[in-house]
Specification:
Layout: H1 6-16, H2 34-49, E1 53-56, E2 62-66, E3 74-80, H3 93-108, E4 117-122, H4 135-140, H5 146-150, H6 160-167, E5 182-190, H7 195-198, E6 203-209, E7 211-220, H8 237-252, E8 260-262, E9 266-269, E10 279-288, H9 291-302, E11 307-308, E12 311-321, E13 324-325, H10 328-340, E14 345-350, H11 356-359, E15 365-370, H12 386-406
Parallel strand pairs: 3-4, 3-5, 5-15, 6-14
Antiparallel strand pairs: 1-2, 2-4, 6-13, 6-15, 7-10, 7-12, 8-10, 9-10, 11-12
Helix pairs in contact: 1-3, 3-12, 10-12
The structure holds zinc ion.
């Protein structure tokens, strides 16, 4: 089986780690920032050198294509090149660089292929500068309203539209990914969790993306003086919230061990050390691949009484997403190829969201995961050993070739 070049893989990772380098082992490469534009320029330079044709669409998604036979739709692979603030050198960009390395291998090894092969960069996956996350894959798949997205502003008051126009990468809407022009997407990504490394697995065969719910809870009590109000008269909204968080943990821990849940946001009003809090809000994010387990989470939420520690308790769904299932034929190819290369693999569901989960509604799609050291991600410690990146690129390349051959 043909393999990618590990030295070239190393060079790609090292080169792109310079764009937005924080000097502490990570990058800050917010979408369409100067650092992101440098990365895009280097990407386009390398693609052109390989003889690829570059197009961008109206959301500045980049499509770099190796030509194939006339009239056949292209096979896409890629991910995003933007990062969160003080993020790592692997999230997103590794999917772009492994795709670029696979394309480079096809060119240098003169591997025959029928379909055009496209390496894609999706704009603003992180939503770290302009909310929401997965903005551009969301717009072109009809999930988000483009005008609303264009009005999204960063902390400096710059709109996404202004950044898009200034970037030089805004192209025609007619260049967007459509099922007539593209037949498949493969996205390689770091796992962003500890499971693969923990189990000494090389390749995560991604079956889909976990469904999730996000609920906001509100507790209303009475603000009173911290020094004069005897304990028995208090309606302390923070105490009620804490009791409820404890209840949720106790009950949710009894459910399936693959369930993950988080209270990541909490606010207390008036948040003054001499005042009993009268209003506290917190969120609960819960994720699992099986909708039945998510239903069990909802039952636990519904069992919260209307009054907790003399405070009014209420909750509402902030947002949710159904479990996404990737394309079975491609999942099988990834598994087969990992096996044929002699790499260990296991099937896995993604907890985080990825562009691929939007694209899969339009064209057949799947993902490949590679391990994250100690599970760290969205931080400067994010790391995947070179050999794992290279193994991922090999599986990606072979899977693209299988799709080409069998369609
Ligand atoms: Zn990512």
């Amino acid at each position: 089986m043909v393999t990618c070049n590990i030295d070239r893989m190393d060079d790609k990772i090292k080169t792109f780690s310079k764009f937005g380098d924080t000097g502490r082992g990570g990058i800050t490469r917010l979408s369409l920032s100067p650092a992101a534009l440098e990365a895009r320029e280097e990407f386009c330079r390398r693609c052109k050198a390989l003889g690829m044709e570059i197009k961008t669409d109206d959301m500045a998604n980049i499509y770099a294509t190796l030509p194939g036979e006339d009239g056949l739709p292209a096979i896409m692979m890629g991910s995003h090149a933007d990062s969160v603030k003080q993020g790592g050198n692997y999230d997103g960009i590794l999917g772009v660089l492994t795709a670029l390395e696979a394309a480079e291998t096809i060119v240098t090894e003169k591997i025959p292929h029928k379909h055009p092969i496209t390496v894609v960069i999706w704009t603003n996956e992180e939503g770290a500068r302009f909310e929401p996350a997965m903005m551009s894959s969301g717009v072109i798949t009809g999930k988000f309203d483009k005008d609303v997205m264009l009005a999204s502003t960063d902390t400096e008051g710059v709109t996404f539209k202004e950044a898009l126009e200034a970037s030089g990468y805004m192209g025609e809407a007619s260049n967007r990914m459509t099922p007539e022009k593209y037949m498949a997407l493969l996205e390689l990504h770091i796992e962003q969790g500890p499971v693969l490394e923990d189990e000494k697995i090389d390749i995560g065969v991604v079956e889909g993306v976990c469904g999730m719910i996000n609920y906001e809870f509100t507790f209303v009590g009475q603000a009173d003086h911290a020094g004069t109000t005897p304990m028995k008269y208090r309606k302390d909204a923070l105490y009620a919230a804490v009791k409820t968080i404890q209840y949720l943990h106790d009950e949710l821990d009894k459910l399936d061990s693959k369930l993950v849940y988080t209270t990541g946001k909490i606010s207390a009003h008036p948040n003054i050390h001499t005042v009993i809090p009268d209003m506290v809000k917190f969120t609960l994010d819960a994720r699992h691949q099986d909708p039945e387990v998510i239903n069990q989470v909802l039952e636990i939420i519904k069992a919260i009484p209307k009054v907790v520690e003399k405070c009014e308790a209420s909750y509402k769904e902030a947002w949710s997403r159904k479990t996404v299932h990737y394309y079975p034929e491609f999942i099988d190819y990834v598994e087969k190829n990992a096996k044929e290369f002699g790499y260990s693999s296991r099937r896995i569901y993604s907890g985080p969201g990825h562009d691929a989960q939007f694209i899969t509604d339009v064209i057949p799609t799947t993902m490949i995961f590679v391990p994250s050291k100690d599970g760290h991600s969205h931080c400067e410690k994010e790391f995947t050993p070179l050999e794992n990146c290279w193994k991922g690129a090999n599986v990606l390349l072979q899977t693209i070739l299988d799709i080409d051959k069998n369609n």
